[in-house]
Structures are given as C-alpha cells and as structure tokens.
Amino acid sequence: MEIEQDGDVVPSEILRDSRGEYFGRWESDLSGPREFPDLGPRKQVKSLVTRFQDTARQYDDEEPWSWHNETGAGDGCGSHAHITFADQTEGDRERFVEGMTIAWNSAVELTPFLAPFFCSDWENGFRGSINRWASPQLTRYSQSTMDRKVRRNNDRTYDSVTLSPREGSKPITIELRLNEAHPSFALVGLTFLRRTMTKAMRGGWSPKLAGDRRGQLNELYRAVYRGGDVIESMQEAGPFEFKEGRGIPGSDQLEFDSAWDVLMKVMAVNGIDRGAYDDHVKKLIQKAGSGDEVRVHQSEAPAGAVTGNAMAADGGELVYTGSAIGPQNNGRALWHTCDDDFSWDVGPDVDPR
Known about the structure:
Blueprint: E1 3-5, H1 12-16, E2 27-28, E3 34-36, H2 45-56, E4 81-83, H3 93-110, H4 115-118, H5 130-133, H6 143-152, E5 161-164, E6 173-176, H7 183-203, H8 213-225, H9 230-236, E7 240-241, E8 255-256, H10 259-270, H11 277-290, E9 294-297, E10 310-313, E11 317-320
Helix pairs in contact: 2-7, 3-6, 3-7, 7-11, 8-9
C-alpha cells in the first residue's frame, strides 16, 4: 500500500525522517500530496498494519496525525493498495496467468462492494477527484488477454482497478486506485478481497454478476462516488444478482436486495470472528449499517462540530448512527486497531480475546 497525505498534516519529523526513525523520506507526488510509496509487501496483512501503526506512534502514541483524503489545496490523497502473487517465476506461467485472471476478475466484480473499507469519510464520501484518478473499472479479462498484458507489462490506467507494471524488483500487481483510507481499514478490505480470491482460485472461477453486469456496476460506482452518505448509498443501490455457479465463494446465495447485503455476505463467509484486528473493523462496518444508536458523552466525543448523523441528546451525550459511526469520527482509534485493549472512539464495544 502507498500512503498519500497532505504534507502540512504529517509531522515534518516523519516526512523528513533525517534520523531514520520512521519510514524514510517521503516523496513529493506530482498530483499534489506527499507520498510514502510502499508499506510492503507482506503475506500477513496484520504485520503491515502493525508496522505502520507502531512506527508512526513513535511520534505520538495517541494520534500521530489526523488522516486526510485531500490536501488543503483540494488535491486528492489516493493511498493505492496492491495485491500480487509471491511467486511470479516463469516455472509455471500458465498457473500464474490463471491465478492473475481470477484475481483480476474478482477484484473488478467485487471492489465497489467493499467501498467502506476504502473510503475515509463515510459521511461526506470519497475525495472529490475520485472519478479523475480512479474511474469505474468494468472490464473482465480472459486468460489470453491477461497473458498478453503480463507479457507486455502494460502501463497502469487511471481506473479504480488496474494492472500496475513491474518495475525493477517490484512485481506486477493488481492496484486498487479508489483507496484513500487509513491502512487499518484499507488493508482489512484487502484481506477480505484476498480471501475471496483464494476461494475462487481453488474452484477455478471468479464471481460474475448476471445480466447487464456493466450496468449494475456502473450504478454502484455512481452511488458510492457521488459524495455524501456512503453507507446509505450502498443500502439503496441494487438489487444485484450473480450468475448461477458464479456467486460469492463460500455462499450459495445469488440474489441480493442491495450492495450492502453483498458486502455483509462477503464479510460473513470470510470473517473469522476471533476478536482480531480485522474483526474490529468488520464490527464497525456492521454497526454503521444496523441503524443502532451509539451514545458518547460530549466530554469523550471526537473533536469537531456535531454534523450529519450525530445529534445532541439529553444528559450531555451525543448520539451517532449510520455513517457517523465511521473512520472520520474514529481518528484516534485508527492508529490502535491492533492493540490488545482496543476500543472505538465512536462505535461498538469490542471485546479483546
């Protein structure tokens, strides 16, 4: 995963890192923000989350900086995430191309359904430039097309899902350009996508929507990209139907009333529910969609005005529902999801196990 943030937000000690305490010196991205180009690669996603949280928390153990999806000048901060294969040798090229094809088609079909993992502000939606740098990707590839693209090492496109070419020691990857979220969310989204891909590869097929799949995906992208309440938009988008035998791996259900129902099924069949860091994030997403209220005393509420779905209540409390229970109101918690005594600033109680 790449990290893009406003250079005026990240502490200068971290950006310059003259003493080698953090990630190394951040680059100046041509689109505006500052960039730390690579957190990985790792097979175990938790190690990436832990590395990022622990390293940054050397500067401030509570909240090293407030996560942003745009710079002060309005430039988008797209922290693109990548998936690839550990072994890309020529020894079994046919198997590699088959795996890449299934992984690509799974990502194209399911990535927009995972939008809450990749959006940093559920109340206001994705960054304003999202369509410019991560336009909806709707195109599936055959194995012959994937084989040709892998051989030619084509340049990336400015789409939500694209192939990112090999460069030096960096392998070819499937890049998710819509991501703007903190690693504690984005990398958990990658975990659910990777688990889905793995199951699909074992079956030799990828999920595929039935009927006018391009029209269905376009509808979903319009809903989550238009700005405003992401959770509500997903609950209103639909219905969706998958082809017989090409549904979500691990589930026989093919018809869903909404995009939100698809997301719930992806998490249900791929979740472990052992109280781990990824369960913390999953439970927050589930809570946002339930419509249940979360009450927080004003003295413990996140800084900022009461907006959106957060309302004043009697007894000095604020009541949060829906998208207000999101990463934008959990600024401190974003940096602590791997802690043994973790708790959300605004959200469900999480019992450590």
